[in-house]
Amino acid sequence: AAAIAVAAPAAVILWLAVRDDGAARAPALRGDAPAVIEVLAPIGAVAPPIELAWRPVAGAVRYRVEVFTVDGRPVWSREVAAPRVAWPADVPAPAPGAELRWRVEARDGVAVRAASPIQPLRIAP
Known about the structure:
By secondary structure, this protein is mostly beta strands. Helix content is 0%, strand content 48%.
């Protein structure tokens, strides 16, 4: 692979890596989109007690979990060390039939290493 320097106005220089097939691509930067976390539970409707779980991420020190309503209002969030969290005792349990959303981010102490897509959280009727 070779490198090509491209000069742009205002003395901005962009380095592109050139693959063996001649296609150019930008180098991976720390600010690129994080990897995707695989969610393990819940899948489908769940009855209390509610536990959220996901596959561990290499290098993660903490996980930030957020639960929110379908219109985006926060219900609760926590930072945990393990790749699972139970519904907090200090947060009222959702009503039967409630529809919520949740997501999790893996953090390495400095940046987000991985994130899950927004997940449905359906409470059994």
